[in-house]
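Hi support team,

I've been running sequence recovery on a batch of backbones for a student project. Most finish fine, but this one hangs at about 90% for roughly twenty minutes before it completes. I'm not sure whether the input is malformed or the queue is just slow. I've pasted the structure tokens below so you can try to reproduce it. Let me know if you need the job ID as well.

Thanks,
M.K.
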């Protein structure tokens, strides 16, 4: 009997650690399931699920078109200047007209507007592809279609960004933006790879036609959405000075002003990887196109890792955006001083993580801070900075790299991000140490349709 009791006691002692381990293991599994649930919470909303699937395919097609357009211009002219001119025609309209595109986005039914802009881009890709396949591939035709595509993007970009807030509730906006950014980064990888294969097989015209087809899933999914469950804001009534009102709104709102200052500096000086990375591979590590491609792949890998680890985020703050800008600056500076290719590749993954986190946080902060009736104009300004500044930053960084080398170009990007993060932190403390602004200070000019006098 005594031996049996001793045996049971020994078994109980051994069982306790196992029970404790089981409890810990169960907690880990529950936390993992909860994190996965939060990471995919937006996809449980049918309307967002429809948008996400169509958007992911459309983005890949858009990147196919960009690569095919660059290649076609180069085939016709053999000139890098001509490629730059085509890019300027495509992105220039956003820089010049972006804020008015935001006004349109605040005035109209965004789902209908998105149907129109996606259909217009489908027709442009279809007509250009047909002309090129038929052998009518004059330079002026490609330039004209680049300009027309840029004009369509003036409205499409703010409408598409603002539409996300109509698909999910406020608590899911951060998650939806992370998923959108993940789809965009997948498209940036898949689109150019597919474009290379299609161009080698059938030429640039076929790539344009494939891009035209890539708009169909989103168009079909937009038509299938349940309009009754959309979280539509009151529409802006047509009036004078509404573009200026959007500019004043951002200027007078301290958090929006801080976000835009961060975006301007980081986008212009820090995110022109297509300009700096070819020189990094060639100058610093005696590589060629393969090294450039590997650096871009590591940047994409970092973005996907960031998407995995940040998808469960449920909110975003201006302070978090400042920290992300500082992290991007530190990573960029570390890349500039990396002595070996292996270390540079590893650091580039970190740059990709910081870059993805900063861009996603910026869009999320703008949507959470701004009134929904102002989303079109605020996100149009984001597009002006994010897309419209690309030619300016590319020229500036290209000049810096040619004059002082790729390492200095990387240092300019990294140190400028650190500097603007410090300035933004000071702006944040100053703004939040004052009494809060009254709502009238940041109200948009003009009435929304739901606020008209009766």
């Amino acid at each position: 009997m005594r031996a049996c009791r001793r045996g049971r006691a020994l078994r109980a002692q051994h069982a306790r650690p196992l029970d404790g381990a089981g409890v810990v293991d169960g907690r880990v599994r529950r936390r993992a399931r909860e994190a996965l649930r939060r990471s995919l919470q937006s996809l449980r909303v049918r309307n967002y699920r429809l948008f996400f699937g169509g958007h992911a395919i459309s983005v890949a097609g858009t990147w196919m078109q960009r690569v095919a357009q660059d290649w076609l211009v180069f085939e016709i002219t053999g000139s890098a200047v001509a490629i730059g001119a085509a890019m300027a025609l495509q992105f220039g309209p956003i820089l010049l007209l972006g804020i008015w595109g935001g006004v349109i986005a605040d005035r109209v039914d965004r789902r209908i507007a998105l149907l129109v802009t996606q259909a217009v881009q489908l027709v442009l890709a279809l007509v250009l592809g047909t002309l090129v396949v038929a052998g009518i591939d004059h330079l002026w035709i490609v330039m004209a279609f680049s300009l027309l595509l840029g004009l369509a993007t003036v409205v499409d970009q703010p409408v598409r960004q603002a539409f996300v807030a109509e698909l999910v509730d406020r608590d899911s906006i951060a998650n939806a933006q992370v998923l959108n950014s993940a789809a965009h980064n997948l498209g940036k990888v898949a689109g150019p790879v597919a474009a290379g294969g299609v161009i080698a097989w059938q030429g640039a015209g076929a790539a344009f036609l494939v891009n035209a087809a890539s708009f169909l899933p989103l168009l079909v999914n937009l038509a299938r959405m349940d309009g009754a469950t959309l979280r539509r804001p009151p529409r802006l009534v047509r009036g004078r000075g509404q573009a200026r009102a959007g500019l004043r709104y951002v200027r007078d709102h301290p958090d929006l002003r801080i976000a835009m200052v961060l975006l301007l500096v980081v986008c212009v000086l820090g995110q022109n990887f297509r300009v700096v990375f070819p020189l990094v591979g060639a100058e610093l590590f005696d590589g060629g196109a393969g090294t450039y491609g590997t650096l871009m792949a590591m940047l994409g890998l970092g973005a996907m890792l960031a998407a995995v680890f940040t998808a469960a985020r449920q909110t975003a703050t201006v302070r978090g955006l400042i920290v992300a800008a500082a992290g991007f600056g530190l990573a960029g500076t570390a890349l500039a001083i990396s002595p070996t290719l292996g270390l540079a590749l590893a650091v580039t993954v970190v740059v990709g993580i910081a870059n993805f986190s900063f861009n996603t946080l910026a869009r999320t902060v703008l949507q959470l801070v701004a009134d929904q009736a102002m989303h079109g104009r605020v996100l149009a300004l984001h597009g002006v900075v994010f897309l419209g500044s690309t030619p300016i930053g590319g020229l500036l960084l290209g000049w810096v790299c040619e004059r002082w080398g790729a390492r200095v170009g990387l240092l300019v990007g990294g140190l400028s991000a650190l500097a603007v993060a410090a300035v933004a932190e000071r702006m944040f403390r100053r703004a939040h140490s004052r009494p809060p602004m009254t709502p009238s200070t940041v109200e948009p000019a003009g009435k929304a349709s739901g606020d008209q006098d009766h």
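--
Follow-up from support: It reproduced on our side and the slowdown came from queue contention, not your input. The chain has 18 helices and no strands. No action needed from you.
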